[in-house]
Amino acid sequence: MADLAAALRELPCPRVPAAPVAAPAPQRVEGVASLSLGITGLVLLLFSVGLLSLITLPLSVSAWALGRTARRRARGGGGSVAVSGEILGIIGTVLGCLALAACAVMVA
């Protein structure tokens, strides 16, 4: 039995190359965060009729900034989520400023 094991160890065996493993796709965390912040800011602003503009304004500005950075990082395409978040952030920022100005006029 020992002779058989020694003979098998000396036999040439071809090395089979391992199959290449595909790298996982990079996740677009900034784009998704921008879109969710933009949606949250606009929904809160519209449902509160502008009364929560002090809360929704930072959300919208953050969505705008995150969308801009995510769009710049996604040069090879796939930045549609980032563009959507950036646009929602711009709209939310403008509407939030208008709502804040309207509240200030009503108080004064």
Brief summary:
The protein has 108 residues and is mainly α. Helices cover 71% and strands 0% of the residues.
Protein described:
The protein has a domain at 29-73 and 80-108. The protein has 4 helices and no strands. Helix 2 packs antiparallel against helix 3 (53-73). The chain has 108 residues and is mostly helical. The mean pLDDT is 85. Helix content is 71%, strand content 0%. It has helices at residues 2-10, 29-47, 53-73, 80-107.
Features:
single chain, mainly alpha, 4 helices
Per DSSP, the total helix count is 4
Low-confidence stretches: none
Describe the largest sheet.
none
Give the end-to-end Cα distance, rounded to a whole number of Å.
101 Å
Q: Which oligomeric state applies?
A: single chain
Note the topology.
Elements: H1 2-10, H2 29-47, H3 53-73, H4 80-107
Helix pairs in contact: 2-3, 2-4, 3-4
